Amino acid sequence: QPQLVESGGGLVQPGGSLRLSCVSSGSIFERSAMGWYRRPPGQGRELVATITDGHRTLYGDSVKGRFTISRDNAKSTTYLQMNDLNSEHTAVYYCHDLIWEAWGQGTQVTVST
């Protein structure tokens, strides 16, 4: 099974930006479809964005055009660029391999003053 390791989370002020990274190992990464999901406090997990092996992207409605998912196959890494963050974006963000059904441990994003 693939191993997914997220990084880049942390505390950010409203209006700030973060870029999350997810490094994948143990799979043929370039053939995988990847995604980012999040779990806000007290809420269920929801889709943020997905990207296929052909670089087609899909975004959840809650993103509101502020997030961008991308991938670098040479680095086996999936990225999530998050801009104009506000308190609604506070959540644990998870990286997901849709082909191998693997999950990362998650990285905390907290938007606060």
List keywords for this structure.
globular; 113 residues; 4-stranded antiparallel sheet; mainly beta; 7-stranded mixed sheet; 11 strands
Structural class: mainly beta
Number of strands: 11
Question: Termini distance?
Answer: 39 Å
Please tally the helical runs, counting DSSP H or I stretches of 4 or more residues. 0
% residues in beta strands: over 45%
**Percent helix range:** under 10%
Radius of gyration from CA coordinates: 13 Å
Low-confidence stretches: none
Query: Would you tell me the overall average pLDDT?
Result: 96
Largest sheet: 7 strands, mixed
**Global shape:** globular
Order of helices and strands: EEEEEEEEEEE
Task: Describe, in short, the structure shown.
With 113 residues, the chain is mostly beta strands. The protein contains no helices and eleven strands. It starts with a strand and ends with a strand.
Overview of the molecule:
There is one protein chain. The protein has 113 residues and is an all-beta fold. The radius of gyration is 13 Å and the shape is globular. 0% of the residues lie in helices and 50% in strands.
